[in-house]
Design goal:
303 residues, Rossmann fold, Histone, subunit A, globular
């Protein structure tokens, strides 16, 4: 078991957090979050952040970042490295679980050797974002780095800002850094599984979870978030459900319309995650979420 790390990736609502928790109990493991929205502390219900019970294994990197703070893949992987090393030193097994594909790619493939960018450049970009809007900055990216523009989604604020700050701070396109050899952060043996699921069953799970969120207090959670008066470009505001519930609170839509919009966006998100898993994690063992006992047996045999 020495220096072995388990990686569990899967789309939203696929049951990966429950699987990781069950596995951790079986093998003396500890769970490490690899979901880019569950790192934020302000939303627990809408982000479906796990709520470990008293006797559950330790959970790390959940709800520890302020909602107005931008977090890069580099920041996350450095924290993940510190946490996993502490777990390994105790003789336990880190189980890294989540749905953010870029986090897993950084773990297995390493990071592009991009130099540190001055904070002033980030601050300037944030001001421009507020004054000009994301569409304008996306247009600038098209002019400065067409390859990055073609890859990055027009609504992916964090990656657009990152590409522009790298160009302004280093004078070099981020797409050029992507071509360079990656710098490894993790040098361990990985046991990797990507969870698959019948599309219709997954969508049903997404819908059921949405209904549960409203019963658990998602509306009140968004009300509390609004009272924090974050800048309207704060990363946490991009969480699925925030804008829809805000529309409901402002009486622009009714509660059923809010739920339907959240379910629709969640389906879209799950579909993108499935596509990423299929094309970017080819070497990973793929298995059905319905075979949790077989998955656990698989990990135990590999350890």
């Amino acid at each position: 078991m020495k220096n072995k790390i388990i990686l569990i990736a899967g789309p939203t609502a696929s049951g990966k957090s429950s699987l990781a928790n069950t596995l951790a109990k079986k093998i003396d493991g500890e769970v490490v979050n690899a979901d880019s929205i569950q790192i934020y502390k302000d939303l627990e219900i809408l982000t479906a952040r796990p709520k470990p019970k008293k006797n559950d294994p330790n959970h790390h990197l959940y709800g520890f970042v302020n909602g107005n703070e931008l977090w890069s893949v580099g920041k996350w992987i450095n924290e993940a490295k510190k946490v996993t090393e502490k777990i390994l030193k105790k003789g336990s097994i880190p189980i890294i679980v989540g749905g953010t594909g870029l986090y897993f790619k950084a773990i297995t493939d390493g990071l592009s050797p991009i130099p540190d960018i001055k904070q002033e450049i980030r601050d300037d970009l944030k001001e421009e974002l507020n004054s000009k809007g994301l569409e304008s900055l996306y247009g600038e990216l098209k002019f400065t780095d067409i390859k990055a523009y073609e890859i990055i989604n027009k609504n992916d604020q964090q990656r657009i800002l990152r590409a522009l700050e790298v160009y302004r701070g280093s004078g070099k396109k981020i797409s050029e850094y992507w071509k360079l050899d990656k710098e490894k952060v993790f040098e361990y043996n990985f046991i990797k599984i990507k969870l698959s699921s019948d599309r219709e069953k997954l969508y049903k799970s997404c819908d059921d979870r949405c209904d549960d969120m409203f019963q658990l207090g998602a509306v009140e959670e968004v009300k509390a978030l609004m009272e924090l008066n974050y800048d309207n470009k704060a990363p946490i505001l991009n969480a699925i459900g925030v804008s829809e519930i805000k529309e409901y609170l402002n009486k622009k839509i009714n509660i059923d319309e809010a739920k339907d919009l959240i379910k629709f966006r969640t389906h879209q998100y799950a579909k993108r995650q499935i596509t990423w898993l299929k094309h970017q994690m080819i070497s990973w063992k793929s298995t059905s979420t319905q075979e949790s006992d077989k998955i656990i047996d698989y990990f135990i045999k590999k350890l």
